[in-house]
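Incident review: delayed structure delivery

Summary: a single-chain prediction request sat in the queue longer than the usual turnaround. Root cause was a stuck worker, restarted by the on-call engineer. No data loss occurred. The affected request and its eventual output are reproduced below so the record is complete for anyone auditing the incident later.

Affected input:
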Amino acid sequence: MNKAEKEAITSYMIPFLNLEKHFPLLPDAKKIAHQAAMMGLTEKELSSRRNEIQDIVRKAALELLQEEEVMDWFPKLPFKPNDSLLVFGDSTADDLQGWFSILSRVLDIGIEEAEFTFINSGLSYQTTTEALRRIQRDLLDHEPDWIFVSLGLFDALRMKALPDRTLVPLAETWENLNAIESVIRSVTPNPPIWIIPHPVIPEMQKETNLFDFTISPEDLFQVQQLVAGKTGYLVDPMAKRFGTPAERWHYLSDGIHASLSGQRITAREVLHSLMAR
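Output delivered after worker restart:
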């Protein structure tokens, strides 16, 4: 296995390729031995890496909890002790060491008396159109109390084979977001929590060339504006949480996905946004 292949498996396949969510009707997709085989790994290798990720998430959560300011936010959070929290999203949510995993650990450790239920309905690389197709199974059927929406990043991508258009037209993204909001309001009286897509770094995309698509800041800005215009809680409406301009160490090598540093910043920004309203 060469260096590029190892990076692809360690940085992308293991954190983002959660096969049981891609193939929910296939019983064997839930078995770790079969998941490992699909990735070209042994069961031991996959289990070991996932355990490492859990340790990384716990450490990131503890680092946030060491911040006195963060601890002061807990009494102001809108959640009730037995609430269920669901994220409906793309890779930004599906990442095993992503902001939702960190947030879950922060709340579990920081609010000992609470018994939250956390549901990760993120599915990597999905657009708002693809997310709508699974909204019954992955959102409505869970009947959550609180819903985070972390979508839009991949609506703005342009396939290298079709560079003259974004994958999802902006008007369709707008309609999809409205439809998602309508569904959310039918299942819970609590307002949606919208995670504005973080910026991308084009130079890093060119350096790695991992995908058959690119995402430009100009295309993404229009999607960010749509999400920031929604009603409910808005997390980082100016999309500046990674700096202005965005700093490279908050990203994986592709310049699209957030690194652990970026994910921890997003988790912190979520807490701050929920407290500040």
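Verification: The CA atoms of residues 64 and 243 lie 19 Å apart.
Action items: add queue-age alerting; document worker restart procedure.
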